[in-house]
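We treat protein structure as text, and this decision shapes the records that our systems exchange. Such a record has a labelled line for the sequence and another for the C-alpha cells. The record that follows is passed on verbatim for readers who wish to inspect the format:
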Amino acid sequence: MDILTVYADSQTDFDDHSRVRVYWRSSASRQRAVDVTLALTCQDKAAAAEVVAIRYLLGEANIFNANRTGINLKLVVSKGAIKKMTRQATRKFDLYEYGYPIITRYAEAEIAVSKNRSWFPGEDKLGDVPLINGESLRGIEKLHSEGMGLVAVTRHALDRYVEHCGTNDMNTTWKNLHRRLKGPLDRISLPSKVMMHKLRRYGEAPEVWKQPGNNPLHFVFCNRADYKLLVTVFNKDPDELETFRPSVANRF
C-alpha cells in the first residue's frame, strides 16, 4: 500500500493571499514540504492546503505513478474536516472544490487523521520548496478528450457509470471512464421538443455524446466556459432525456 502523509503547519497572510506550509512524506526517507497559496476568503486554509497538496503530489508531481487512483492508497491528514469531506458531512463547502479528486479519482483511498509531527524534516533537509497555487487547482479535475477538448467528471456521473457498466470499484470506474472519454465520441442530435424543454427548464440544453458503433452508453455534458462537464451517463435513447436533472447531477 502507498501511504501519503500531509500536515499543514504554518500560515502567513499577505495583502491578497495566504500561504500555508504543508509538510509531507511518502516513506521514512522521503520527507519534504510544499507551500500552498490560497485566497483570503478560503474557509479553512489549513484543511484546504492539505487537500491541495495531496492533489498536487498525486496528480501532478506523480510521487507514486502517473495514473494513480485510490486503490491500495492511504492518505494520512491532520485535519478532521477532510475525513468529513469524504463522507460529504462537512459544511466547509469550498473544501469540496479544493479536494474534489479525493471524492472521485481517489475515492477508494483509506483516510486517517493523525496529529503526529515527530517526522517533520529539518529545514536543512527540505531543499527547494515548491510553491503551489491552490486556486489554480480548485475545482474538478479535467482531462483532454479527442474531439471535445477539456472534460470534467462529476461524482454523480461516476456513480451512474458504475450502475450501467457494472465496474467493481472506483479505481476501475475512473480508469475505464477516462479511457472512453479520451477516445472518439459522436454527438447525438436532440429532438427539437427535448431541446425546447431543456431551454425552458434549465436555460441551457445539454449535449449528448456516445461512442461510435452500437454501444448503448450515452454521456450527457453541460458546457462551461472552457470545458465540458459530464453530469450523467445513461443507456437510454436520447428521446427519454426528460428525466435529466442538472441540480441533482451536479451535486457532490
Q: What stands out?
A: DSSP finds seven helices and twelve strands in the chain. Confidence is low (pLDDT under 50) at residues 238-252.
